[in-house]
């Protein structure tokens, strides 16, 4: 699919030029379609047209994978305490810029049995989707230099472009999406976050939450409590259990 989309994007301007004298609207339509075929998988996090995105894992019973984005932040210690008190494991997708400022928090995450993933160096959420290949590589490598080795990368806001998968492939890394999210990054109401996540969770789901907001710790605690009450265990699956389709 990726090759078809990129070939169409290259051919569309040629078609526009060829059709312009006799059928300009048709040429414009082809060009617009080529742009749409690029933008849709770029802006939709779990769409796999440009390459594989991990969206679930093979469970061993009622298991979920809790992933926490945007740290390390001042509430990391509190979040670790919340997880430890509930016997839950999580993977923290961290920013390289913040990891360099607080390597002690990254070390605490690892020492307490959790995972660390790459969430880009500076988290350019407004522009990552349109960065050129060299800038994409710099974002991945900048974070990688500040954290323990990992094969897992999550793009800022989940957006990617045609340069992301080749960069990850050269580094032996995988793009990690999610199964369900609570939009806790923009909503501070823990009850609303739980109501959005809980009904959508299934064995093998990847749950994404955030840290660093006023209500982050409360949201994480409420989600973990609710899913534990429903019988779910929180695990970090092995790479061989990750799936790009449910």
Defining traits:
246 residues; alpha/beta; six-stranded parallel sheet
Poorly predicted tracts of residues:
none
Radius of gyration, rounded? 20 Å
In DSSP terms, counting alpha (H) and pi (I) runs of 4 or more, how many helices? 9
Q: Average pLDDT value?
A: 95
Number of strands: 10
Question: What is the chain-wise order of helices and strands?
Answer: HHEEHEHHEHEHEEHEHEE
Strand content: 5-15%
What report would you give on this structure?
Helix 3 runs parallel beside helix 9 and helix 8 crosses helix 9. The chain is an alpha/beta fold and 246 residues long. The protein is elongated and about 70 Å long. Helix 3 links the parallel strand 2 and strand 3. Helices cover 42% and strands 15% of the residues. The longest helix has 20 residues. Strands 2, 3, 4, 7, 8 and 9 form a six-stranded parallel β-sheet that branches.
Topology:
Elements: H1 2-19, H2 24-43, E1 56-57, E2 63-71, H3 76-85, E3 90-94, H4 96-101, H5 103-111, E4 115-118, H6 133-144, E5 152-153, H7 164-170, E6 174-175, E7 180-181, H8 190-197, E8 205-210, H9 216-229, E9 233-234, E10 242-243
Helix pairs in contact: 1-2, 3-9, 8-9
